[in-house]
Records
---
Amino acid sequence: MNFQLTTKLLLFFVLLLAACNSPKEDADRPPNIIYIMADDHTTQGFGAYGSRLASLDPTPNIDRLAKEGMLLENVFCTNSICTPSRASIMTGQYGHVNGVHDLSGFLKKENQHLALELKELGYQTAMVGKWHLKYAPDAFDYYNVLPGQGLYFDPVLYNSEGIGEKKEIKFNEGLNREVSAQTYEGHSSDVITDIALNWLKTKRKKDQPFFLMHHFKAPHDFFEFAPRYTDYLEDVEIPEPASLWYNANNGSIGTRGVNDALTDTIGSSIGHRNIIRNMGMHMKIDPNIPDPEYKKLAYQEYLKRYLRCVKGVDDNVKRIFDYLKAEGLEDNTVVIYTGDQGFMLGEHDYIDKRWMYEESMRMPFLIRYPKLIKAGSRADAIINNTDFAPTMIELAGGKTPDYMQGSSFKSILETAEEPEGWQQETYYRYWMHMAHKHNNPAHFGIRTKKYKLIFFYGRDYKERTGKAQKWANNPASMSSFETPASLGVL
Ligand SMILES: [Ca+2]
């Protein structure tokens, strides 16, 4: 064998060896996607978002996504309440298009678009935890979900595998379905993560990329935390927001009434201000204690319970991270963490969500995917929850379907810059006029990076006949109230 031939053969074998060792399959394969969403986990309840509570270090594990990936500063929901936000995430559409305006909204299989699109792109799909869209998540290959809100302790979940007891459950007025349900012992955050990990370990097909939606119930009200967190923050004074006490510039005649005549009924409060619904009532603070003491006690108890739930979520997120690391999946998996909307933790003396005000409208959004996203990056582009599905679809190698209204922000993840023509505003609408004794008037509005305009139009969006749904004429909730705008005062 002459020297030239030997060299050529050697080169051939070197190249062959290199080809065998190259991670071609991994590199060519779209990434796995784990979409983790907590319920009502607001940006103030994170370390990474730098709020007044950051000094308490409430989310050391979740914050890793910001350190190793990107934190998005201006992500907003299009309607700050559970079911509509989830519907916008699944469909890439606003409520007036997908038909989910309020908590009675639903998505049938054919409208569970995100799961259908990712399946079409070759993904194995799974949905675990709080779903809250009435019809079963049948568009997923696997599901194991809470019926409706579900329970914090020893929750029942129903599954796609036909395992467990056959149960008929009422999901909506006139919608009873038989499901295969199992009861799981323990706190819902632990249970949901156990189920997700079990799916990853035993049901995941290694020859397909996977898409897992991992939805916690916590820290939704009423903030029932696992007993192991009872001592967490027990001796800590939780910092108060300044607007808990000084709220002069908040609201308008549409929310305060003429000469503040409505402030005792509009928007559930921390202390005694709202006489119909306030957090002191829920925290069982002695109503005979006057403000400011009552308000202080209610706030401290509220925040401690909320943050203990957050701690439980954060610890469980670490279990997912640990699994990805142990399996060598960290680099080829997109990990997203978000909450389904923001939440009022006493800012402007409000509790709950629903408002287009900042703390309620803003969603946390942290994402890690080292192949695309620079560690420690941030972006301030205006994004809303109709953009989530298009982005995940593009990350999976697809294109935004025409029927979706949102836009993919994949290029923003890559560069932290807005592409030319990127949206400069986001639209919002809260439809549930004066519902649930939180008594938030219905409103719509628009927000840019600099400005926000909100219109409180003062009426429900439909005639309600069912007793439970009849918010507009419910004397117990004072919701026969009409805003000044609807009466032509403005
Ligand atoms: Ca929610």
Note: The domain at 32-477 is CATH 3.40.720.10 (Alkaline Phosphatase, subunit A).
---
Amino acid sequence: MRGRDWDDEDEDEAAPSPSGNAHEEERALKELRTVYQRADTAYAPFSCPASGECCQLATTRRQPWLWWPEWLLLARRHPLPPPRADGGCPYLDAAGRRCTVYADRPFGCRTFFCDRIQGPARQPAETVNALLVRLERLSERLLPSLKGPRPLLDWHAEAFARKGKTRP
Ligand code: SF4
């Protein structure tokens, strides 16, 4: 079992449960992991230089968009980090090179394709699209009011503000 860390007490504040149904959420997170595994399998023939450049969100002006279960997984399993001064993803390590939530990184991070990636000429677009549909349905089941994915920095900023309000 994971030891207590500085942010454990804030996990529910980072991801308050809209359904109030812990069992349903656990089921959704299990299915989410299956979706992630399928995406990883689809991208297994490709290799990434792992420079961390695509995680410099302010520089690239791009960021992953997450459905609710994706944010829920991050918020439940990892301490909520502060924003980075350089505008990079808050889940980067201190050096700004490595993802600290790699095993739980969002779908968009798993399937992002930069021009330095190496492998087959054709991307697994059909698989990615089918998995995206599955992800959307999964999110709709858990949080019907959410009509689309949201940028990672929006989820993070909202959770961070909520955390600030709950601290003395
Ligand atoms: S979650 Fe990880 S892989 Fe995705 S942008 Fe952030 S640091 Fe990069």
Note: Helices lie at 11-14, 22-43, 57-60, 68-77, 107-111, 125-142, 152-166.
---
Amino acid sequence: MKNINFCTLLIESFISYITDLEKFSKTVLEASLGITQSQIGFIGIIEPGTKALVFKYYTNTIKHLIRKKIVIYPDKNCNYGCTVIDKKMAVYITNKKLYPAHNCIKKCPLLGCPIPVEYFMSLPVILKDKVLGLIFLGNSKRGYTDNDLEHVKKIGKYFAIALERYWLEKEVKKYTQDLERMVEEKVKALKEREMLAIIGQMTLMVAHDLRNPLQAISNYSFLMKEAIKSSSSKIDKKIRKYARAIARNTEYMDKIVKNLQCLGKREAKLEFVNLQVIIGELLKNITKQRRIKIVTDVDNVQTQLDPILITRALSNLILNSIQAMPKGGTLTIRAKQKGSIIEFLVKDTGMGMDEEIKRNLFKPFYTTKAKGMGIGLALTKHVVELHNGTIDVKSQPSKGTKITIKIPAQTEQK
Ligand SMILES: Nc1ncnc2c1ncn2[C@@H]1O[C@H](COP(=O)(O)OP(=O)(O)OP(=O)(O)O)[C@@H](O)[C@H]1O
Ligand SMILES: [Mg+2]
């Protein structure tokens, strides 16, 4: 009796908080073995939402017979398993009689082999009519009595309460983590949006003030190039070099200003444009690289979109692809109507991206380039969203990158 009280106390103390299911199962099994003087035994647990019985703890004597996890339903061939788990009844043999009356089991489907027992006792761990697990005990030298059954049933009851609490706490923890993650994501998205809004305001101011002088420098730079070309007098090599540098840097500044201006846009100004015209114009303005082969496939389709924004988005993708192929390669540009979708594709055979870059590429100001601002893809995503579209990036290091933009086609002229 002393033994029983001790075990009950031990289990009650565990009910207050279980963190280690295995350790707890061990306590339950040891208490049950002690009370019934059994030599072998195991504890099985049914994980919520599954139909699998997982062996959580077992005596060393049957270690070799134990499979880690078994599916328990449906197993109508197993008299004993059926009775304990499906019919929710305890089964035990005493004095070679089996209660309730069933054919004596030769082979235990739970263990997948004959059970090396003379006498055994097995009972379900039940709470609110739901089976949460199973306690199996065997080979008590003195056989099993009704008293043993009552005591182990009591342990099973405590075990069930503790188990349910364990699963509930686990579920609450999971919900809390999910909630935390959701809040974190929302805050992050809000911050990004806020950041874009601030960039947008700054952008419009800066771009507005820079656009005119930049245009003037650009024009003068062009005129200077023309003047050098048509000049009859010999022009110093250095001056030619400086003129080229001015043109190159003006182009770079122009790209930044145009990108910032697009980032500041809150809506797309839709108009009917032909895809071939858009891509044609775009390609005219790309500084061609000798080692890069350009393949295009563009439908002759008229659709509604914001040509300035789409051109900016595509030219950023194209520029990224060119920058990703310093040793040359193939640049594929496609613009096609696929049913109710206009699909743009920019593909390169360049250096590709690793997982870290893929995770961050749409973040404003994320760049891996010495002379990059990291706004090309943030802007592209912004433009795609203004067109209610989607953007998908597939990339493999050293193989290349494929970026697909899909926007709803609005091809009917009203
Ligand atoms: N086609 C590509 N191949 C390989 N890496 C790419 C490609 N496109 C983008 N990336 C990676 O994603 C990063 C972000 O690209 P994004 O266009 O936003 O900025 P950036 O090109 O670095 O600078 P910016 O476009 O402002 O000049 C790049 O720095 C690069 O690491
Ligand atoms: Mg870029």
Note: The pocket of magnesium ion (ligand 2) is lined by residues 316, 319-320, 372, 376 (CB under 6 Å).
